[in-house]
Amino acid sequence: MTDDPASAWDAEYARGRYLDEPPVPFVRDVLATAHRYGHTTGLYVGCGNGRNFLPLLAGGLDLTGLDVSRTALDQLAARAPGARLHHGDLASLPPGGYPLVVGIQVFQHGDAATTRAHVRAAADRVVPGGLLCVRVNAVGTDVWPAHEVLERGDGLTVRYTAGPKRGLAVHFFAADELRAAVGDGFREVLAMRRDDTTRAVAEHGRWCQWEAIWQRKALTCRNTP
């Protein structure tokens, strides 16, 4: 058993995870919205070995890829020589904001408090007028494989006892919980929606993800009399 996402994902990427998988359709929404608002530079949190990161680069975005898995970044560097990559988490980055911050299936690792803090930390990196693009686990998922429930409240947190995430805590967000984590300083420009995917083995049920894009509200100046 492990509660170390970096080590767990190093092992998964070493086994070839995601190398041959197509990007999720949400990538098209990120590209379209980024170009509509004129934002082409930014940060991709949890870029992995490039499943979704590479199509975003090919679509004209100039992103720094961030990941806690050294194995994933080594694979990505071989696939995209010259790409700007950073090993670590958001706290390991130098201070500063980005016009575009993308996180696809990354902010769900940990318990409720930890995952909300992940979302908040990503939101804090968005400059005024910039975009936060999120796809994250949603309540309604038929959680599989074997697991134990750690928290049940606004969302759901489990610890897997089998499968590739064995030993890891993973959170499934409620809609209002996710909105609260992003905060009042943002407005939805791609309304939150739930994307449901039926698993290849029907008996394993469905996997649900929230998808949304928020824009950070511009700062307003108040004249002091």
Automatic annotation (TrEMBL):
It comes from the Bacteria. Pfam families: Methyltransf_25 (PF13649). Residues 44-130 form the Methyltransferase domain. InterPro entries: Methyltransf_25, SAM-dependent_MTases_sf. This is Methyltransferase domain-containing protein. It comes from Actinocatenispora rupis.
